[in-house]
Amino acid sequence: MMQTKASILVVDDDPRLLRLVRVNLERAGFQVNTATNGPAALDQLDLEPPDVVVLDITMPGMDGFAVTQRIREISGVPIIMLTAMGEQSQKVRGLEMGADDYLTKPFDPDELVARVRALLRRSKSSGTEDVQHSIKAGQLEIDFVRHKVVRDGQQIKLTPTEYKLLQHLAQQAGKLIPHADLLSKVWGPEYRDETGYLWVYIRSLRQKLEEDPSNPQYIISEPGFGYRFQVPSQEG
Hints:
The protein is an alpha/beta fold.
């Protein structure tokens, strides 16, 4: 039986880059649709929902942040953002708005193909390794069956990647997990040296989960080694 190709929506206002990305993704076996601006991307998303969106941030009119926000109102489709060189703030803001991954321009097209494949693997594998139904930590409740995270009675929206990172930490609460192990388990072995990359996602998770992200109570770091999920004391 013929396997259906994963579909990718690529959004960028640079026609040369759009052609380059399309050719390389199609060569890798994906079905590719393109859009040159935000409104066209949203129309395309509604017409033919993709498996992954590759989205440039710096577009005139409706930029990538605004597009991401609109997508997250209607869909949980994985999003890879294309960011400018050295713009750490763009990466952080993009993740906080709901992107799952980012790639800095200029980039190797083969790297984009690898990121798309890794993201597809993550979205397909989520929920297959649950070993407990839920965990309660202070004001935070994580339901591993329904993939639901609640803080102080309010549901917290996480991207698939953020959820998988939190799941891996929380299901081993109290255990210090090395950077390389976290990266390999959540993103894949090709990411095991991306320590700075992990920091961006941890920061985004803390912004959503912690009452005071600068003084985290749940996600604790051991500089130079890794992170652990801490269940706050119930005393008092």
